[in-house]
């Protein structure tokens, strides 16, 4: 239909002639209320923004000389972050002579990856950047985010911890 006839038909109905696809041959137009069209488009964009999840990267820092209790605490924090749907960056900084013992740092980060297990997937394997060793762990797609739990609570670890060695001497 020629544009003039389409415009005439739209004016008879008290509507607008809206060009939907200008790059198509021939261009596609629709007779509709343009104000209502803009309102519904804006409304759908707003709804899409409220449904999307902003990905946040939370960092858990270790050192080569990390104690067992500190390691467990930071591991539980990483599991909680993954449960909330955030990515976790596990980083370990080497200071001074510790650079000679990089294997100890790799052992700590790899142990963390194994301990986290089902809570997340390794996005970037441990790698060195300067004096920092880091890995990025993303939450698994199948795990729904944990609802907002009261602060200070940590979900129980997936694997039971080994009992402490008894001191019989």
Write the layout of secondary structure elements.
Layout: H1 3-12, E1 16-21, E2 28-32, H2 34-51, E3 57-63, H3 68-83, E4 87-93, H4 102-116, E5 120-129, E6 132-139
Parallel strand pairs: 3-4
Antiparallel strand pairs: 1-2, 4-6, 5-6
Task: Report on this structure.
The model has no long low-confidence stretch (mean pLDDT 83). The protein has two domains: 3-51, Translation initiation factor 3 (IF-3), N-terminal domain (Ubiquitin-like (UB roll)), CATH 3.10.20.80; 57-139, Translation Initiation Factor IF3. It is of the alpha+beta class and 169 residues long. The chain is 35% helix and 25% strand. It has four helices and six strands. The N and C termini lie far apart (99 Å). The strands form two sheets. Strands 3-4-6-5 form a four-stranded mixed beta sheet, covered by helices on one side.
